[in-house]
Design brief:
Elements: H1 10-28, H2 39-51, H3 61-98, E1 103-108, E2 111-120, E3 127-130, E4 133-136, E5 140-144
Antiparallel strand pairs: 1-2, 1-5, 2-3, 3-4
């Protein structure tokens, strides 16, 4: 038996390319690629897997338990990441507060500024007042004095 080769006509090829370009544009335009899978994506995959499993050969208990354990671990890691971000903010503010009344050296553009910390603002990105001017805490290169 001989297999016949099918060749597209130029019109069919053009129509096909136009269809593919349109479909790709619709699917991917203005959408950023997802770099990591989060808990929502993991749960969607698990639910899809359960919904489309073969009823005559369902997922084994061990597999299901392992996937639920992975989901639980992912949830806990997400919570830890949030807690660490909050802790980082608290530590930055605390560090800036501890510098109140102490001497600091900081970079301001190309120059170095030295002086005593006169005031400290709180928040996610604390600022300090040195010589009557507010500077971001992350500009400080060293703290000295008692």
């Amino acid at each position: 038996m001989e297999i016949q080769e099918y060749k597209m006509s130029p019109q069919e090829r053009a129509a096909n390319e136009q269809y593919v370009r349109g479909a790709n544009k619709e699917m991917f335009e203005n959408k950023l690629p997802v770099q990591t899978l989060g808990k929502d994506e993991f749960l969607k995959i698990l639910l899809t897997q359960l919904a489309h499993q073969d009823p005559t050969a369902p997922m084994e208990d061990k597999e299901f338990i392992a996937q639920m354990a992975q989901f639980s671990t992912l949830e806990q890691m997400s919570g830890m990441a949030r807690d660490f971000a909050q802790l980082k903010t608290i530590l930055k503010g605390s560090e800036a507060q501890a510098a109140l009344g102490r001497g600091v050296e900081l970079m301001d553009g190309e120059g170095i500024v030295q002086g005593t910390v006169q005031a400290v603002s709180r928040g996610e990105d604390p600022e300090i007042m040195v010589n009557g001017t507010m500077y971001r805490w992350d500009q400080v290169s060293s703290v000295f004095g008692e």
